[in-house]
Amino acid sequence: MMKNNLIFSLLMIWAICTGGAVYAQTVTGVITDASGALPGVSVVEKGTSNGAVTDFNGEYSIEVSNNDAVLVYSFVGYQSFETTIDGRTRIDVTLKEDIAELDELVVVGYKSQKESTITGAVSSVDVGKLETRRVSEVTQALQGQVAGVNITQSTGAPGDEVQVRIRGNGTIGNNNPLYIIDGIPSREISFLNPADIQSMTVLKDAAAASIYGSRAAGGVIVIKTKEGKQGGQFKVNYFGGIQKVINLPTMLNTDQYMQTVEQAWDNAGYEGVNPYTEDIGRSDFGDVDYLDELFELGRTHNLNISASGGNEKTNYLISGGYFSQDGTVVYDNDKFRKLNFRSNISSRVLDRVMIGANVQMSYNTQDRISSSGDAPGIIRHAFLRPPNIPVFKDPSDPTYSEEDPFTDLPFYQGPDSYESSKYEYSQNPIALAYFTDDETSTFKTFGSVFAEYDILKDKSLRFKTNFGADLNFFHSKAFNQNFGDDDGNGAAIDQGLGRQNRPSSLSESRGQDFTITWNNSLHFDKEFDKHSISVLLGTEFIVNESANLSASRLRYDFTDPNFRYIDFGGTERDLWNGGLAEEWALFSYFASTTYVYDDRYMLTANLRADASSRFAEENKWGYFPSLSTGWMITEEEFMQDTDWLSELKLRGSWGQLGNQEIPNYAYLTLYRRDADRYLISRYGNPDLKWETTTQANVGVDFGFFKNRLYGSADYFKKNTSDILLPISLPQFVGDVSPTFLNAGEVENSGFEFALSYRNFDNPLQFEISANMATLKNEVQSLHPNLPYINGRVTRTQAGHPLNAYYGFVQEGIYQNQAEVSEHLSGTANPPQQPGDIKFRDLDGNGIINDNDRDFIGNPNPKLTYGMNFNLNYKAVDLSLLFQGVNGVDRYNDLKKIIDYDTRPFNYTDRVLGAWDGEGSTNTIPRVSFSDNGSSKVSDIFVEDASYLRLKNIELGYSLDSDKLSGLGNIRFYVSGQNLLTFTDYSGLDPESTDLIDFGTYPQSLTVLFGVNASF
Fold first, then answer.
1. Which of 312, 438, 513, 777 could form a disulfide with 478 if both were Cys (CB 3.0 to 4.6 A apart)?
2. Concatenated DSSP letters for 342-394?
3. Which residues contact 524 (CB under 8 A, 6 or more apart)?
4. Nearest 5°: CA angle at 627, between 626 and 630?
5. How is residue 250 annotated by DSSP?
6. Rounded Cα gap, residues 455 and 591, in angstroms
7. Are the C-beta atoms of residues 145 and 866 closer than 8 Å to each other?
8. Distance, CA of 505 to CA of 196 (rounded, Å)
9. pLDDT in tens, 943-1001
10. How far apart are CA 247 and CA 980, in angstroms?
11. Is the pLDDT of residue 1 over 70?
12. Mean pLDDT of 478-499
């Protein structure tokens, strides 16, 4: 504006001096696109140098010379627009995207690169679509957005981790990707505020990711946080809502339960009077739906505030956010809170010098609950608890107390009088939820300071240094309060205490983790004639130190929260403590060069050399090269007359990546002290070296009709060799931990497709996009002394996927004794009876034993996909996201224990269709307190966990900025998550990272209301 005022003043002086008349008129307005206000749009009076630029609200003001002046509106990536003012003083313009001209800069390894020249498998994430995902963690917003990237929420418990897999599991160890946040590497990004993200780029193949070398085998996600721009803007975003668990199975009520356990007693062949027959109709029975008692409405609140601005030299952004979620389990002991603050600032202090800092501080607390069926198994016990046992004791019960009003041992009258043989084999899940007190907290400071110096005047050669710090303080504290009924057991000192958490105890740990990263890079970018060359040289140094202290103590006389500290526990014999410290370091050289000829032919080569402290001196260095090429066919002369095809690019790449994610000092032999002796606790392996992933990729990018229809297709093959395997040594060697060896090979291969169509030419503007990826996972080999690796229900073996389910195969249900005798002809006096499970006799010898086990399921999804729909009509917008997986199996242990177990747990209503006579069913065995075959690991419990889920839907309405009297833009919206799920899986949630579903905390249906305002 200073320049405009100066020009206007000179014109006035000239007019006065020459006696002429000067016409002057001010024109104002707002420039928008389909998404809202457009800052930075150039507004120029045609034929003159008179111009203006829109501010953050898309507003402009310009003085024109005459009534017939023509204004030209232009912005990179949009179609220019011209209009004659015709005496108007306000002109609002909506610019249309010029899709064919879009060539965005994509942040890749240590630099930015034009999207049209990228030759690796790189996916740039549409952050605008992510903004409609109302989630606490950035990775959750990525779900369903990128082909070949599978995002899985481990459980629905607030604050639980999210698993990210890029092109599948390639190793038996750590498969997590590497995150690069403003140039600084990190292994997790849960601390980031999704509202602070400006861009995300997924580097999927080795050619794209090899510049990060030794830690990039799981893929790389590059994140750039928002920065300020000229002008000023203040934003406030808030949403809040509720969650509800849906699609719960129907459990048996008391009448159905009593009839079922009565039948199970009879089928077991016990002698004497059936005790359940005698109990039917008892007056002290309840009729409890424990799932209904356990789950309540959860609540979520999220507030983000940001201020940004700047001038020609300095830009700044300051933001703060608060997220809270109270989970869906009663008593609010499953809460999550996250508070964060960010400050990004950059300044061009000299014409050739740019400095800046990006710093975030975050603090979160999580009240942990047994969300995966682990002890104490709150959700699991809500399924197991018989419905006839009331939640609470009657206040008239002599064992009732206000501090512990819950029914524990069924129909308890004293240590020697409770009905343990009939109903006792579970715990009260409501009491477990009430007494849970397990909290973790983390304080993190993550950020960097940087400086750039343009060595040459044309800025083709520049140097950048970036110094980052990642500082974490952890605190975990769990108090296990004694409660429940006295079953007469326990140590003499604890006689009379309740059976749960006997005696009360406290476990507490504190730790810190500190990582320093310093990278320096030299960049050369030059274009001349038809040639373009980009060269990157750099070094990186990373050092990490971590330490922790922990202690626990038993027997607390006072359990009030004010006394839940280590000092208030029992005597010294009840105290345990420990602590340790570790460190590791990485030093690297890296180089990259990209050559482009005439926008047609592209070649990129990368090389990184890493030296890691986790390997012995002779194997310390690893080298990770890559090469990729591209051919933009539509730039060829013979394609210039093909108007309908706007882009066609072929890509090919090859490269290698590494993995060093093993315990520190794994190559060293470790000792432990035993009295006055020192014994080996783990044998080291000085020959240990890098795990190497070699990956080849071919792909094509295509666009039609000025790129309104745009897509890509890729085929990849990823081979991981020298896998870092922990090998257990023979027992005669002694009690030692496994030794790490390089052995094993895993191959992943698959196709990836992405397609989008955009139409912004009409009042009803819309965009439809979809992505899909296939995956084949296969173990090629293991160590010669380790032909397979067995898990509880899995086996990893050459020729099969990682962690494939392994067990017996059901053929049906024995219908009569003759069928039993015929099928088990080689078994003397088989215990099986009609109604038991009939397993396939693979070797045909008439005996069912371990030799009849087979591979019965694959936990690695064969197909992942996502679909986005975005529509805008005037002030109304609508977005939908569907996400799903196919060809994935899950072992449903919860199904096994509630419908097939030999103990008197509750059942789902599926058991009402159990076998009760010849011909009644050939799928569900008889209910029995004796083994009906369900004790075996079998395909009965391996279920298809494929699903399609309406992951997100959002409807918004934006108020007209002209009617807000300068308040800016305001948008109201309602958002829903997990509204619909289509699946055949009978567990609580098909989306899970666990190989075994013991009773996973399910994801909830969520309804949120929110408002976004900018000023």
1. 438
2. EEEEEEEEETTEEEEEEEEEEEEEEE---TTS-TT-HHHHHHHS-TTS-SB--
3. 460, 461, 533, 534, 535, 536
4. 145
5. P
6. 19
7. yes
8. 41
9. 999 999 999 999 999 886 555 555 678 899 999 999 999 999 999 999 988 899 999 99
10. 10
11. no
12. 92
C-alpha distances in Å from residue 914, one per residue of 31, 121, 821, 907, 1002: 68, 52, 22, 11, 27
Does 136 have pLDDT greater than 50?
Answer: yes
pLDDT for res 414: 86
Instruction: Answer yes or no: are the C-beta atoms of 983 and 945 closer than 8 Å.
Output: yes
H or E stretch covering 625: strand 621-632
Beta bridge partners of 233: 308
Contact 583, 545 (CB under 8 A): yes
Which has more pLDDT, 128 or 272? Answer: 272
- H or E element, residue 527: strand 505-528
How far is 405 from 730, CA to CA, in rounded Å? 51
Dihedral (C-alpha) 79, 82, 85, 88: value to the nearest 10 degrees?
A: -10
Burial class (CB in 10 A: 0-12, 13-18, 19+), 246: middle
pLDDT (tens digit, 9 = 90+) per residue, 106-118?
A: 888 888 888 888 9
Structure tokens belonging to residue 629: 């090429």
Half-sphere exposure of 966 (CA within 13 A, CB side): 0
Cβ–Cβ < 8 Å for 777, 804: no
Residue with tokens 């004791």: 393
The number of CA neighbours under 13 Å toward the Cβ of 831 is 7
State whether residue 425 is helix, strand or coil. coil
**Beta-strand relationship, 947-958 and 876-886:** antiparallel
326 pLDDT more than 80: yes
Q: Which tokens go with 530?
A: 């038809």
Q: Which two tokens stand for residue 735?
A: 């009690």
Assigned token pair, 797: 């073996």
Task: Fill in the amino acid letter for 540.
Answer: E
Distance, in Å, from the CA atom of 848 to the CA atom of 167, rounded to the nearest integer, reads 38
State how beta strands 353-367 and 438-454 pair.
Answer: antiparallel
What does the block give as tokens for 759?
């139409």
Measured distance CA(525)–CA(533) in Å, rounded: 6
Amino acid in the structure at residue 898 = I
Q: What is the pLDDT of residue 885?
A: 96
Sequence-distant (6+) residues with CB within 8 A of 697 are 120, 121, 204, 205, 206, 207, 628, 651, 652, 653, 654, 714, 715, 716
CB distance 1009 to 967 below 8 Å: no
What is the DSSP code (8-state) at residue 561? G
Bond preceding residue 376 cis, omega within 30 of 0: yes
Looking at residue 747, what is its pLDDT?
Answer: 96
**Spatial distance between the Cα atoms of 573 and 17, rounded to a whole number of angstroms:** 101
Q: Give the pLDDT band (50/70/90) at residue 483.
A: very high
Name residue 22's beta-bridge partners.
Answer: none
**Smallest Cα–Cα separation from 251: which of 387, 422, 150, 345?**
387
Strands 314-326 and 298-310: antiparallel
Whether 55 and 247 have beta carbons less than 8 Å apart is answered as no
Cβ burial 95-121 (10 Å sphere, 16+ → b, else e)? bebebeebeeebbbbbbbbbebbbbbb
| 395's tokens | 């206040």
Query: For 63, what's the count of Cα atoms within 13 Å in the CB-facing half-sphere?
Result: 14
Q: What is the pLDDT of residues 569-609, one digit of tens each?
A: 988 778 899 999 999 999 999 999 999 999 899 999 999 99
Using only C-alpha atoms, the chain has a radius of gyration, in whole angstroms, of: 33
Tokens linked to 131:
């903004």
pLDDT band at 103 (very low <50, low <70, confident <90, very high): low
Confidence (pLDDT) at 961? 57
Q: What is the mean pLDDT of residues 15-23?
A: 40
The answer to whether 117 touches 594, Cβ cutoff 8 Å, is yes
Judge whether residue 16 has pLDDT over 50: no
Q: Residue type for 784, please? A: P
